[in-house]
């Protein structure tokens, strides 16, 4: 695994105007994150209050507010994020059937920066499991009603120039 040094940022306690909702725009070990992997486009770090034994997040360095703002032009970034998640889970010897990756959908996301949850099941408890429900879709929908969307569902929806939302499907909209 390669890790490049991040530019230094002000520590959380040093910047009185620090916006906690933008914390993921400043991911670094200097800012208290346990960075696991990084390249020029993505950074991965362990979750502070993990839902399962192995729970980390992959985020793009480019600021994308949430899964709702994703466009077709973001598909390669999404695929790269999923690939990094699988590589890290592979290094941890997590079987494919025990892997879960996805995004919370606003207003049920905690941060205003796109972040892929990468998890090695099982969950620590039932309440943790409730935060990450994946609901399969039904033809012609890629997903069911849920505040969490699986990574491959997201990619499929975005590739069709559709929007990710809470409901099974949102109408394709003009992207002007």
TrEMBL record:
The signal peptide, as residue positions, is: none
Q: Which InterPro entries match?
A: HIT-like, HIT-like_sf
Q: What stretch of residues is annotated with the motif Histidine triad motif? A: 113-117
Q: Which residues cross the membrane?
A: none
The top of its lineage is: Eukaryota, Fungi, Dikarya, Basidiomycota, Agaricomycotina
Q: Which PROSITE patterns match?
A: HIT_2
User: Which controlled-vocabulary keywords does the entry list?
Assistant: Hydrolase, Nucleotide-binding
* Name this protein carries in UniProt: Scavenger mRNA decapping enzyme C-term binding-domain-containing protein
The lineage's top-level taxon is Eukaryota
Domain HIT, first and last residues per copy: 23-128
Q: Which organism is it from?
A: Lentinula lateritia
**Pfam families attached here?**
DcpS_C
